Structure formats: structure tokens, C-alpha cells
Amino acid sequence: MDNNLFKNIEKKTGVNMKDVFELANSVQGANFKDEKTVRNLVRRVSQIANKPVSKEKEDKIVKAITDNGQSLDFGTIAKMINKK
Question: Are 27 and 56 in contact (CB under 8 A)?
Fold first, then answer.
């Protein structure tokens, strides 16, 4: 992939693309029905996106994901974190 593209994304978003790729690799094959796995994933996305998540919001996100049990991507979880 084009390094300039990633550098532009990093500059505009403040999100380190290396962290995003590491996160993406770590969730491949993850069990989205396992609360601990999902909770750790939500915390990592929150940290990477530099968006603090309250315990209440984290609980809601974890419940939504574990109840659904389907594979999710970074963007979907980031949208959940950004919802008010």
C-alpha cells in the first residue's frame, strides 16, 4: 500500500496506522461471543481512537457485540464509541 496515504490518514485522524493493523490482525478469528475478548477489543479501539469510553457505554457496546456475535470491524466499533 502507499505509505503517503497512511501518513495522510495518520495526520488527519491522529490514529497510528500500525496500531490499526495490529488491532485488525488481533481480531481475526476472535470469539465475539466472549465478553472478555470483546471488552479488551473495545478498550483497545477506544485507546487507539483516543476516545475515552465510560463504563456504562463500554457495557452497552460489549452487550451489543456479544449478543450479536458477528465479526465486527474497527469502523463499526469506533462508530459505537462515538455515539452519544
Answer: no
CA distances (Å), origin 28, targets 3, 5, 24, 50, 73? 23, 24, 7, 22, 10
Average pLDDT over the chain, rounded to an integer: 80
Span 55-66, pLDDT tens digits = 999 999 899 888
Q: How many Å apart are CA 47 and CA 42, to the nearest integer? A: 9
**pTM of this prediction?**
0.68
Cell numbers standing for residue 4: 503517503
Integer Cα distance of 9 and 38 in angstroms = 26
Cα–Cα–Cα angle for 77, 50, 83, rounded to 5 degrees: 45
